[in-house]
Design goal:
single chain; alpha+beta; CD59; Phosphorylase Kinase, domain 1; Transferase(Phosphotransferase), domain 1; 3 domains; seven-stranded mixed beta sheet; 14 helices; about 40% helix; elongated; binds adenine
């Protein structure tokens, strides 16, 4: 029986194999076609792609990047970009693919339709910084530095050329006009209206004007041109600036429909230049970029009226305080909000980026629920870096001391209230941020349905008046060792109990005893499974008694993160 079956199997095998081979070939042919079609429709660019390579390029004339890697860009819109940087004596090239619809290091790419990569200098990047972009395969391999890096004489000569052209035009026109008048007088004809010349000139100016505004909208040049932005409504007001929702027009040209992106514009008055400058400097650090940090587009100086602008992403849900006033959150929401807040603060405090490069740690120094925005997916992002401090290890104790007692009294850590922050150790600034973060986490819990009965929103230390002063905060926080109340009912829920345990460690009177933001982020991460324990779709319900009992056991073991955090 077995032998017969195997013989039949043998006879059938070639036919079956043929069929199989045929179908595989058919599928492969289909795939190749599909792939080829996709390739025809979406030709993706080839660019040199070696991020951060040392170089000997002097930043003049032209240079060829020593990069052996050619990448097929990920997105069809990507163009090739080269960045030349010189910090002290260290010269580097960055070669990447990048979608010009998005900013890079806070810069808007321009001139990327060129076939050549022509370098432009960008100021305020913390080092000598040149960037170019172009749209031909591997066009970022050879870069050209423009005249702006050449000798000052050449720069002056180049800038004088337009002036000379205008002067020659004016003199010639004037001379021609006089000849014309003489001719009119000589021929005995009546003089024509003087307006003629003026009118023609006016029309030219108008044409030029509208032309330039359409170029304006097409080439979003960060350095020389202002972004085409139309302000809508005011959405916020801070100590130093007002925030507006605005339209950033895109792709406008005559006869083409204009698209726009909604952005936020933070407007500082002329007098608040210093606040604008310091926030701009914090934002200009490309290493600040993180999902949980407000996305910065660019900074501008506007002439009429004289104002200073910071242009950032816009988040329609507004700030966390407003959100908590109007919404009760579920345990899952709390987990998303709290975890992302801790990740944002941890990134700010960290001395390395997610890629492992060194970055300057930053202390926010004004963490509070109104300085945190809620994104569409309910994750948080930190905003308002007006008081932030770059914890550069070159900062002297004097410089740190001069930065003063800053922040919002309600959220100030005890050592900040007493102006006794340890200036010898930059960690102290991070520890003060962690205290403020704990108060925000408490605010979120106070509006979470998983705690049982949810009261109206109240800020931490809500018994105090609207803007408590430092002295009354000292009484509550230092003299009375007061902290916002954590009722027993809150810890019936395992997740809330774990977050409350972290909060308790974060608002410790002793700054050194506080958790780091990274540790809080890890604890949130470790709590993910608790989401499945609780009914996340309807967290209005309290966790049943049996689970609470289990919770008590968990709180001392599994619910807590590994030792060391
Ligand atoms: N309020 C302050 N900044 C904001 C932003 N970027 N988006 C929405 N609301 C804001």
């Amino acid at each position: 029986m077995g032998a017969r079956r195997s013989r039949v199997g043998y006879r059938a095998a070639p036919l079956f194999m043929e069929l199989l081979r045929f179908s595989v070939l058919l599928i492969l042919a289909g795939l190749v076609r599909l792939d080829a079609e996709a390739y025809v429709v979406k030709l993706r660019r080839l660019c040199k792609f070696c991020d951060l390579q040392e170089s000997t390029c002097a930043g003049t004339g032209s240079c060829t990047v020593e990069c052996d890697i050619t990448a097929i860009c990920l997105e069809k819109e990507d163009v090739c970009v080269s960045i030349w940087r010189k910090k002290e004596d260290n010269v580097t090239f960055d070669t990447v693919c990048h979608n010009p619809a998005r900013s890079l290091y806070g810069l808007v790419l321009d001139g990327y339709n060129n076939s050549k990569c022509e370098m432009k200098e960008r100021k305020d990047m913390g080092s000598e910084f040149f960037i170019c972009s172009c749209s031909e395969d591997e066009c970022n391999e050879t870069v050209f530095f423009n005249a702006s890096k050449d000798s000052p004489v050449a720069v002056i000569l180049v800038s004088l050329v337009p002036l000379l052209v205008v002067a020659v035009f004016v003199v010639t026109s004037f001379y021609g006009y006089r000849v014309y008048l003489q001719g009119q007088a000589g021929s005995g004809r009546k003089r024509g209206p003087l307006l003629d010349f003026g009118d023609a000139h006016g029309i030219m100016m108008d044409d030029g004007g509208s032309d330039s505004s359409s170029t304006h909208a097409n080439n979003l040049n960060h350095n020389t041109e202002l972004l085409p932005i139309e302000l809508d409504a005011q959405v916020g007001k801070g100590r130093f600036a007002e925030v507006y929702r605005a339209k950033l027009k895109r792709g406008s040209s005559v006869g083409r429909e204009q698209g726009f992106e909604t952005v936020a514009v933070k407007i500082f008055s002329y007098e608040e230049y210093a606040s604008w400058k310091s926030e701009k400097e914090i934002f200009s650090d490309a290493d600040l970029r993180h999902d949980n940090v407000l996305h910065f587009l660019t900074a501008e100086e506007r002439k009429v009226p004289r104002q200073y602008w910071l242009i950032t992403a816009y988040h329609p849900r507004g700030n966390l305080q407003e959100y908590l006033i109007h919404h009760v959150v579920t345990w899952h929401d709390l987990w998303v909000l709290g975890g992302s807040l801790a990740r944002g603060v941890a990134h700010l405090h960290s001395d390395h980026t997610t890629c492992g490069h060194y970055k300057v740690p930053i202390a926010h120094r004004d963490i509070k629920s109104s300085n945190i925005l809620v994104k569409g997916d309910l994750t948080c992002c930190l905003c308002d870096f007006g008081l932030a401090l770059r914890l550069d290890n070159t900062l002297s104790v004097d410089e740190l001391a001069n930065s003063g007692q800053v922040g919002t009294a309600r959220y100030m850590a005890p050592e900040v209230l007493e102006s006794r922050i340890n200036l010898e150790n930059i960690e102290s600034f991070k520890q003060a941020d962690v205290y403020s973060m704990a108060l925000v986490l408490w605010e979120v819990i106070s509006r979470c349905s998983a705690i049982g009965e949810v009261k109206e929103y109240e800020p931490p230390f809500g018994n105090l008046r609207e803007h408590p002063c430092v002295e009354s905060m000292k009484d509550s926080v230092i003299r009375d060792r007061g902290r916002p109340e954590v009722p027993n009912s809150w810890v019936n829920h395992t997740g809330i109990q774990t977050v409350c345990a972290s909060i308790d460690e974060c608002w410790d009177h002793d700054p050194e005893a506080r958790l780091t933001a990274q540790c809080v982020a890890e604890r949130f991460y470790d709590m993910e499974y608790l989401d499945k324990l609780s009914d996340s779709s309807d967290s209005e319900e309290k966790v049943p008694e049996e689970i609470s009992v289990v919770d008590e056991k968990l709180s001392s073991t599994e619910a807590l993160p590994p030792a060391g955090c």
